[in-house]
Each structure stands twice: as C-alpha cells, then as structure tokens.
Design brief:
Layout (H helix, E strand, L loop, with lengths): L7 E12 L2 E12 L3 E5 L6 H9 L6 E6 L2 E2 L5 H7 L1 E3 L12 H7 L12 H7 L1 H18 L15 H14 L4 E5 L7 H16 L4 E5 L3 H7 L2 E6 L2 E6 L1 H6 L1 H6 L9 H9 L1
Parallel strand pairs: 3-8, 3-9, 6-7, 7-8
Antiparallel strand pairs: 1-2, 1-4, 4-5, 9-10
Helix pairs in contact: 3-6, 5-6
Length: about 270
C-alpha cells in the first residue's frame, strides 16, 4: 500500500504533556514517513487524542518537539500548521450544523483564498468570481469522491451520523493537506459505513498521496489498512512497528486486548479488575 514510505514527514521527539499533576503523555517519540497510514491505538485514556492535539497544535507539549517536513512546529498555532499542510478530523463532530454540506466543505478551503492588500481591489473586481468557481469545482470533486452528491445542499445537522463523518472528512480534505489526522473516523458506524470509510482512507493514501495518522478502535480495520501501528498505554509508548508485529507483542496483548492467560494468577486477577 502507499507510495514512497522512506522520507520522514512527521517527527515527534520526547513529547510529554501535563495538565497540572496529571501526565497525559510521557516521553513519546515516533516518526511517520511520507506515504504511510500510521495508526495509534490503545485503551481509553491512553493519550491518543492528546497526541493528535500536540501534532495539530491544539496542545503545546510540556516537553519535547514536533517537526513537520523538517520544520520545528512545536510552538506554531493550529492555523499555521494547517498552512503548512496538516489537516484533521475530530473525535466529536465539529461541523457547522446550520450550514449546508457544500458550505461546510468550503470552510476547509478558506486558507487557500487569495488575500493580497496591494492587488485586492483589482482582484475583487476581476478575479473573485473565477476563484470561487475554482474552489467550488475542487469541492465538488471531493463530494464525488466521498459519494455524498445527494446531500451536497442538505443542512449538515440534519444528516445521519455516518454522513456527517464523511462531511467532516471532506472538510479536512478540502484543506489539501499533506498529512491528515483522523480521530476515530469510524466510531459509531455500522459495518457497511466502516467498509466505505476504510476504502476512502485507502484511496486518499494511494490515489491522492496523503499521509495518514489515524486513531481507531476497530482492530480489524487498523490491521487491514495500516502500514505501521503505535500503541500507547497510560500516556507511554509500549510498541511501534508493523501491524502483525504489534499484534504479537505480549505487552500489547495484555494492555490493549486484555489477554491475561499467560500472567501469574495474582497479576491476572488485577488485570481483570482493571
């Protein structure tokens, strides 16, 4: 799957995150290569979304650095990282429910609009309509790709949950990111919707050339479409590698899958209680 998987696109080095006395992340390091689908898994509360927030700029790490395309972005705000090519979706839908699907997706292209003080007047006289049409064409391409043509003019808040997840993905794609961060893109979906979303993610990676960092609880999907997988547990990285390698890791099986057969009796009991 994917194309060139050798060039590091994202580098996370020794990232720790604290909220008062609570440690959400502790000394986490990893790289994501250009062209990969890289999944982050772990139990609830393991720090997965906190890590995405450190990458996207919603959180600033207490310690450590985040580099994107070789540039230190640790101190950059989310909009500056978006300008560099980082897009994301959210665990909880962040759509404008009162706006149409088309307008929601157009919001994702706002940073691509021309804004030049010196040529502004001339631009608005001669080029605004052309640019709007160009952006509309781009949005329609995304709508066709995600197979939501039939709801393009519907109000986003009236759609089913699965369709709203597609619209949020469409808005993130509209940013034209090099790296897209997906926070539980298949949560709350039925089997058919999950299969469709997995196909869209694969196509984004293979045909659109987007590098993907994904949080997902469906282990079947993770193992089927990921190039590499990282496991977090209580904010610490406990494994990082190929899907089959990670799945075979005893520490992962105990921490994430709850397999305790090979543990001493006392440890097994405590694991079951946890």
């Amino acid at each position: 799957m994917g194309g060139n998987v050798t060039e590091p696109l994202l580098e996370v080095a020794g990232v720790s995150l604290r909220f008062g006395g609570i440690r959400a992340l502790t000394d986490v390091s990893f790289t994501v290569r250009k062209g990969e689908i890289f999944s982050i898994i772990g139990p609830n509360g393991a720090g997965k979304t906190s890590m995405l927030n450190c990458i996207s700029g919603r959180y600033t790490p207490s310690e450590g650095r985040v580099r994107f395309k070789g540039q230190d972005v640790t101190a950059l705000k989310p909009n500056k990282r978006a300008d560099l090519g980082i897009g994301r979706t959210f665990q909880n839908l962040a759509l404008f429910g009162h706006m149409s699907v088309l307008d929601n997706i157009m919001v994702g292209r706002h940073h691509l609009l021309r804004n030049n003080f010196f040529t502004g007047s001339l631009y608005w006289l001669t080029g605004a309509r052309r640019e709007e049409l160009r952006h509309r064409r781009e949005v329609e391409t995304i709508i066709d790709f995600l197979e939501i043509q039939h709801v393009r003019r519907a109000t986003a808040g009236t759609l089913s949950y699965g369709l709203r997840k597609r619209v949020e993905l469409a808005r993130a794609i509209a940013l034209k990111p090099d790296l897209i961060l997906l926070d539980e893109p298949m949560a709350g979906m039925n089997l058919e919707e999950k299969e469709d979303m997995a196909r869209f993610i694969l196509d984004l990676n293979e045909e659109w050339g987007m590098t993907v960092v994904m949080i997902e609880h469906d282990m079947g999907v993770v193992m089927d479409i990921s190039h590499r997988v990282m496991v977090l547990d209580f904010g610490k990285k406990i494994a990082d590698g190929l899907p089959d390698e990670v799945l075979a890791n005893d520490h992962v099986r105990r921490a994430y899958l709850g397999e305790v057969d090979d543990l001493p009796e006392a440890d097994a009991a405590s694991a079951q209680v946890a």
